[in-house]
Amino acid sequence: MTKPAPNGMASWTSTIYSLNRGSVEDELERLAYNHFNIWTPLTDGLLPAHILSSLQSQDRPRIADIATGSGVWLTTLADDVPPRSELIGFDLDRLKLPPRPPTPPIPPPPVSPPLRPEQPTLDFREQDVLKPFPAELRGTFDLVHVRLLALGLKAGDWDAVLRRLYDLLKPGGWLVWEDTGGLYMAAFPPSRAYDEFWWATMKHDAKEKSTKATLQLLKPSLTAVVEDGGEETVRTMEDVSRIERDLVRDTDQNGVRLGFDYFWNWGQRPS
């Protein structure tokens, strides 16, 4: 559900997904930057080579992008698929979806019409992945793509979502899902205050670089652990100093960097 938001925010969706919290312009910039500078370089392309090759061998492949956001993945893919491809992006938040291009008036045909190369069709629709897709879409896609949906799902959602995505595929169609491991704790029921805290913290940490930001949080966080009685190997302030010293050594001398797991999974519906 998309609601008008205070304080200049464009939208606040009452789901556990907490990244969609800035203005539309900020969100579009974030999604584009991450697409071109983080996610696509991590996988060295938009799709596994054998799946892209399969799409390129078809005359009119039909492709769905789930939780499409701004549609940046889908519009980038349009350059790599056959000219008669049909590409449809689905997202719960309609505010970031690209506008539908206006339908131009049809002029009378010229005596000798010039040849125009066909281009893939792009369409964007509002759709909650937690709700059933329209029946006419089921079994019609050669590829269903998902990126970074884990942040918007609870443990009990996964089976139903996977079944809905599977049902969208034609026999022989591919599901490609790229996602991270756990990055943070989510608030449920959704909390606007928590999301504002988390979004501001993430933006700050990105500017400071995650390793430096973690070092800044380490001492006060572990001090609280000690004051509450300690946990396993962290029971005294000497333990806190030891961990801080060793982490500085590992990052400065041993090249340790903080990061996250990123998974690229795919599977094919039996023919």
UniProtKB/TrEMBL annotation:
Q: Which GO terms describe its biological process?
A: methylation
The Gene Ontology terms for molecular function here are: methyltransferase activity
Gene3D superfamilies, alphabetically?
Answer: Vaccinia Virus protein VP39 (3.40.50.150)
Which intervals carry biased composition (Pro residues)? Answer: 98-117
The record's SUPFAM superfamilies line, in alphabetical order, gives: S-adenosyl-L-methionine-dependent methyltransferases
Give positions of region: Disordered: 94-118
InterPro entries of this UniProt entry? SAM-dependent_MTases_sf
**Matches recorded under CDD domains:** AdoMet_MTases
The organism's superkingdom is given as Eukaryota
Which family would the database say this protein is a member of?
Belongs to the methyltransferase superfamily. LaeA methyltransferase family.
Protein name stated in the entry = Methyltransferase domain-containing protein
Organism of origin is: Colletotrichum navitas
Taxonomic lineage is:
Eukaryota, Fungi, Dikarya, Ascomycota, Pezizomycotina
